Amino acid sequence: MTVTSPGAPTGRIRHTILEWLKDPPAHFPAGRRRDLAATGVTARAVAAKLGLPPRTVRAHLDFLARLGMLRTRRIRCRTHYRRDEIRIAEVARIFEKGW
């Protein structure tokens, strides 16, 4: 199911990704004996849900990780992404204060 069109603004795509990663088990199929909330979600799983190429989604995920909003964890040959709630709360406070 495609939730965003290929021409969707990047901010909306990143916001959608962050929303889904709040509760990964509700949005993504569980891996083999893995707790998605603890290990995170692969770019391939996010790309399949968004209906976008994995390379595009990986760029969005890497951007969010560089900002510190996502944490990464390598499991075998794949990178798993999960939210960094502390960093997200810090960023939210900055915006609430008006910079």
UniProtKB/TrEMBL annotation:
InterPro entries: WH-like_DNA-bd_sf, WH_DNA-bd_sf. It comes from Streptomyces eurythermus. This is ArsR family transcriptional regulator.
